[in-house]
Amino acid sequence: MANQRFQRARSSEAKAQRGADILAAARVIGEQHGIRRVTLTDIADAVGMHKSALLRYFETREQIFLRLTAEGWREWGPALRAELDDLDGTDSPGAGAPGSVARVVAHSLAIRPLFCDLLAQAPLNLERNVSLDSVLAFKLVTLEEVDGISTSLRRILPELTESDAVDVIAAATSLSGAFWQMATPGATVENLYREDPRLVHAVVEVEPRVTRILTAQLTGLTGH
């Protein structure tokens, strides 16, 4: 793709496709190298564009990744709600217990590493170098998905208040983003952690740790 000769998109359809191509390239590079390491030039090279041409489609590097974060919420929210609804319809003992809910939520995030990376980066820098319109659009997406997930959580665990459910979602996404950063320090540093017995605590596995913390939070909130 980087070797393709760039041709300026002129029709609205071509411009929309070019924007989609830019997002797709950013997604691939982000998955390969981590969001922090990806530059606007990297993305432009991947789609065969000059950086100045790419800026006709997105205002900044951060706007590209903020759009991908919004897409991540749109994909994760419905998927998690479906899993929670399946859990709610299960007749097996403990299906609606805090531990079961915590495991579903933690797993749904752990299998989406790029989303976890984006969740950590969004408040740190992605929201800080874009227009207010971009921030507003992103926040409206997250609010919609949080509301939907909150409804599913409260259906399974009716003891949760609306604010309780929002707190659980905030904890799940914040912890998954932070722990993902800790779990991916780079090959050299990770080898140091694994080879030195004194640093074994620094080896982080996202899913089990988030599961334990969410289980404790939900248990406390529901009294189960």
Explain this structure to me?
The chain is mainly alpha-helical and 224 residues long. Helix content is 71%, strand content 0%. The chain has ten helices and no strands. The protein has helices at 12-33, 40-46, 51-54, 61-88, 98-110, 113-124, 132-156, 162-183, 187-195, 206-222. Helix 4 packs antiparallel against helix 5, helix 7 crosses helix 8 and helix 8 packs antiparallel against helix 10 (206-222). The longest helix has 28 residues, at 61-88. Residues 1-6 have low confidence and may be disordered.
Q: Which residues sit in consecutive blocks of at least 5 with pLDDT less than 50?
A: 1-6
In percent, how much strand structure appears in the residues? under 5%
Order of helices and strands: HHHHHHHHHH
Overall 3D shape: globular
Category from helices, strands and their pairing: mainly alpha
> Strand count, sense and closure of the main sheet?
none
Question: Can you lay out the helices and strands and say which pair or pack?
Answer:
Blueprint: H1 12-33, H2 40-46, H3 51-54, H4 61-88, H5 98-110, H6 113-124, H7 132-156, H8 162-183, H9 187-195, H10 206-222
Helix pairs in contact: 1-2, 1-4, 4-5, 4-6, 4-7, 5-8, 5-10, 6-8, 7-8, 8-10
